[in-house]
Amino acid sequence: MEDDQAASKTLHRTGTVWTASAHIITAVMGSGVLSLAWAVAQLGWILGPAAILLFSLLTNYTLHVACKRCRDPDTGQRSSTYMDAVRSTLGESRARLCGWVQYLNHFGLCIGYTIISATSMMAIKRSDCFHKSGSKNPCHMHNYPYMIAFGIAEIIFSQILDFHQLGWLFIVAAVMSVTYSTIVLGLGFAQVAENGKIMGSLTGISIVTVSPTQKVWKTFSALGDIAFAYSYSLVIIEIQDTIRSPSEFKTMKKASLISVTVATLFYMLCGCMGYAAFGDSTPGNLLTGFGLYNPSWLLDIANVATVILLVGAYQVYCQPLFAFIEKQAAERYPDWEFVTEEMEIPIPGFHPYNLNLFRLVWRTLFVITTTTISILLPYFNHVVGLFLAVGFWPLTIYFPVQMYIKRKKILKRSIKWFCLQVLSISCFIITIATAAGSIVGIFVDLKSY
C-alpha cells in the first residue's frame, strides 16, 4: 500500500467518475458508431439489435471482472496496466502474450482512426466544393493530404506526457462523440420521414443483392464491427489507473456503467435508424450516406466533431503503447542520456515542458508509421475490423475470465467453470469468423483499389 501511495503522489491520480466516463466514452464511441448501421444492415432487424445488446452486456460483465482484479489480493499492490493485472494473476508468459495482442490492437486502431478522420475532413472539403460549383463539379480528391494533416496534429498531442495530463482532451472528445451521434440520429429520422417508410428486413441484406457466400462473409464482418464498437478493454486498466485511491474500483464500476449505457443507447438508435433510412444500401460510414446536399452545414458540424473526437481517441490508444516502450527503454538503457534525460523548456504563462529526446523521436516515428500505413491501406471497415477481431477474444473475454477463475479459485469441471469456458469458446469462434470476414473484405477492396 505504501508503494501505491508513493505512485499516486508521483502520478497525481485525481480521476473521478466523470473523467473516467469521458475516457471510456472517447474510447468506446470512437468511429465505431458510424459503421453500426452497416453492421445492422448485414444482420437484419432481429440479429442486429440483439448483437449490439449482447456485446454490450458481455463487455460490461467481463471488464467489470478485469477491473476488480486491478489490485493484487495478497499484497494490495495496484496494477497500472492490463499487462500488470495479467502478470500478477496469470504469470509472466501470459502477460507477454497479452502485451503483444494489446499493443498490436493499439497500433491498428491508430491506423483506423487516421483513415476515418481523413474521410471526415475530405467530406467537409467536398461538400464546400460541391456547393460552390452549383452541383456541377464531382469534386474528386485524394485523402492523403488529410491523413498527413491528422498525423501532424497527433505528433503535437503525442508529446503530452501521459493519460494523466490529457483529461481535458478526453472531455472535449466525449462531448464531440455525443454531438456527432446526435446529429447522425437526427439525420436518420429525417431520412426515414422523407422516404415515408422504414427500410430493411428481418434478416438483413438479401441474397438477391449479394451472393450467399458474400452474405456469410459480410455477416462475420458485421459482428466484428459491433465487437470493435466495444473495444475499450484495451485500455480499461490504464483508465482505472487515473482514478484517485482508494475507491478506484467503485468509481470505475460506476463510470463504466454510465458510459456503456450511454454508448449502447446511441449505438442502438444510430445503428437502427441508419438501417431504417437506407436499407440494403446502408454505407460503411453512415455520414457518407446523407450525400453532399442540404443541410450541408449540419453534416459539416458532424464531420468536424468526428475529427476532434478521433484526435482524442487516437491518444487514448497510443498513450499506453508509448508508456510501455518508454518504460522498457529506460530499464534497458538506464545510463543513456538520450533515453533518460529530461530537459525543462520554459513556456511563458505555463509550467515548463519536460523534453525527452527519446520520447520526442519515438512518438514522432510512431505517428509517421501509422499515417504511412493508413495512406497505403485506406479501407477503414475491414482493416480495423481485422485488428479488433484478433484482439476481442483474448482481451475482452479470455484474460478476464481466466483471472476471475484464478482469483476466485473456481474448481475445474464445476458448473460455474464449465459455463465460463463455454462463454470463452463461443467468443473465440466469433473472433475467428469475424477475422476471416475482414480478411476477405480486404482482398475484395484491394482488387477494386
Automatic annotation (TrEMBL):
Residues 13-443 form the Amino acid transporter transmembrane domain. It comes from the Eukaryota. It is found in: Membrane. One of its GO terms (cellular component) is membrane. The chain crosses the membrane at residues 17-39, 45-63, 103-124, 144-161, 168-190, 219-237, 257-277, 297-317, 360-380, 386-405, 417-444. GO terms for biological process: amino acid transport. It comes from Rubroshorea leprosula. This is Amino acid transporter transmembrane domain-containing protein. Its main location: membrane. Keywords: Amino-acid transport, Membrane, Transmembrane, Transmembrane helix, Transport.
